[in-house]
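thread from #wetlab-drylab

HS: before we spend reagent money on co-crystallization trials with magnesium ion, can we at least see a predicted complex? here's what I'd submit
DV: go for it
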Amino acid sequence: MAKPIYLVGGSKGGVGKSIVTMALIDYLQQRDQTVLLVETDTTNPDVWMCYRDEVETATLDLDEVDGWIALINDCESQPDHPVIINTAARNNHGVSVHGVTLDSTLTELQRQLVTLWVINRQRDSLELLKPFLEALPNAAVHVVRNLYFGESSKFELYNHSHLRETLERAGGQTLDFPDVADRISDDLFGQRLSIARAARDLPLGNRAELARWRNACARMFARISQEPASASAPA
Ligand SMILES: Nc1ncnc2c1ncn2[C@@H]1O[C@H](COP(=O)(O)OP(=O)(O)OP(=O)(O)O)[C@@H](O)[C@H]1O
Ligand SMILES: [Mg+2]
């Protein structure tokens, strides 16, 4: 089996797709994986800006069929690299129209498509998941409750939903993404820092909070990843 394709979605703006993407890159890097970041947010390529000097990147427009073709070709040419796709809020339409093309190649690529669907506490986060599941029926889908928006018990609409039942019956998991102090996320996005770089360069107090969050992220990703639980080379 080649390495997975991770698609960080959620469709909705501002739910935390970029920060989850960064945490996932960081998690895999710490486990000696050479990742390929596919940045599809062409208007605000924030993850690309933080990671362009550290990992291999491709910027693709998933609103257009050409973007999907290039994505599939990149996945084929680098089977040893996990591919991490940071999606933009507006990609929902492109996924519904063209997602089937990627879905149809997964067997030949010998890759698993793992979706992390990031949600806040509102209804449209969930509504948008339905067309996605139809467009990519072969994806493993996990829902990520972003605890930045409140503790897990507060995600009532999702917690008691039929969608959750269906998803978990299909093997999907409900994951909790930890909150980090605002000043740390401001450091990352404001100074365009990768998490590894922030862990080297920030002042001690900031680094201590970052380390706590990184460990909590690692516990979350360990639930869905095929990588060994302990990091071989913590940065
Ligand atoms: N778990 C978290 N801990 C701390 N801050 C967070 C967390 N999740 C989100 N944020 C804050 O919310 C902001 C928006 O998050 P992010 O940019 O990751 O969302 P997005 O879904 O990628 O947005 P867009 O749709 O605009 O691309 C971040 O800049 C950060 O300040
Ligand atoms: Mg984003």
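DV: The first strand starts at residue 5 and ends at 9.
HS: ok that's useful, forwarding to the group
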